[in-house]
Amino acid sequence: MKRIYQAVVCKANSDVVPARVMAENREDALSKLRGRRASPLELKLSVLDTINVVFKSTADPREIAQFYRTLGRRLERGAEMRGSVRDAMEYVVDPLLKSWIGEMEAQLDGGAPLADSMMRAGFPVRDSALVRAMAGAGQTPRAFLRMSDEYAREDRMARHMRSLLVQPVIFYVIAATLILGATLFALPHMEKFFRQLPNMTMPAYAAVVYSAADWFNVHEVWTVPLYLASSVGFGLYALKGRGVRRLLFQIPAVRRVVERADAATALGAFALLYESAMPRDEAAKRTAEAARREETSRAFIRLAQGIEKGLPNDEAARRAGFPHFLDRAVVGALAARDADSTVEGLTLLAGNLAEDAEVFAQRLEQFVGLALLVVMANVVMMVFFVVVFPMISTALSQV
To answer: Which helix (H) or strand (E) holds 152?
Structure first.
């Protein structure tokens, strides 16, 4: 398991500076620090950062975007590379990204080229490939600014997708808690109160509810843990389960958001790889690996296969089977006469799709909010019929 260690090291020029390293164990961390030509003076495990990294497959895209933007702007103004990296790191909070930057800085101090430093530090391959390609043309600042824009767009898409789940998740937690609390505390007291009323006649449905609550409370030693486990399990399945995702994907509004968000992210990544002068078939394969939807991934795989067979880019795209809202635009972008026009076309298309996804997501958020209001109204009505209505009906029957 990867762990994050915080250290204080003495560099070759006798400077004493803080450092951060990701390693398997303490010995591995010490070895990596010595490999940076630094003498460790202090080393300790960062428990919180390690826990954070365990549950993350990659660094926060918003923080990557901010780091690249800061670095690109400083380089544009003529700042020195190593100093710019060190200064840009001050704004970073993500522990995984901090460990990448620390290793990148150490590689630069050792004389490694910028692209190699990024690749060895753990940055995505597409990022180091783009920096390598554009550095040769003297456009290193532009490479970082381009990647910053792309990561910022990916982050916006991810936040929109997460926002669609926030309200349902909050509602689910509140509803599950209220049901448990009512069953354990409220219903037993209400039932005791009802039984003390003269000539009390409880409706049949209410009697069933109270009987179920009594049975639940009698066996609470195992019913409560079972209820909690099943609630958590069902919630996780609803969030992660493929069956639920396929069901939700049948809703046109949800499908439009997911399709366009994934396509925007995939095309943005493909544009970066295309601009990095990576072989076109390899760029398509790497994009397929990063795509979240199977349909998008298969389309890029077929695109790579067509290019490998020697087909022109536009013809390979035509046969790849991209989604209907994407097909003609991708073919048109890949039919451009030069690589710069292709990159510009793909980037513009990715931006348009991201805007469409944001609009659809906002509409869907409004719909979800209204739907939850309806559900909440039904919950209130159910509580009324179980708790209040029996009292009213009893009082009226005695008039």
So the answer is: helix 140-181
| Token duo for residue 304 | 């790579």
Q: For the chain, what percent of residues have pLDDT higher than 90?
A: 6
State the Cα–Cα distance between residues 314 and 322, nearest whole angstrom: 12
Burial 111-138 (b: 16+ CB within 10 A, else e): ebebbebbbbbbbbebbbbbbbbbeeee
Rounded CA gap, 85 and 102, in Å?
A: 9
Burial class (CB in 10 A: 0-12, 13-18, 19+), 192: exposed
pLDDT in tens, 92-114: 888 888 888 888 888 887 788 88
Tokens of 105: 């800085």
Task: Spell out where the chain has E strands.
Answer: 3-10, 16-23, 39-45
**Nearest-10 Cα torsion for 185, 186, 188, 189:** 110
Is-above-0.85 flag for pTM?
Answer: no
Give domain limits for the chain.
Answer: 3-123, 154-399
Cβ–Cβ under 8 Å, residues 119 and 125: yes
Output the pLDDT for position 395. 63
Of 340, 161, 182, the closest CA to residue 255 belongs to 161
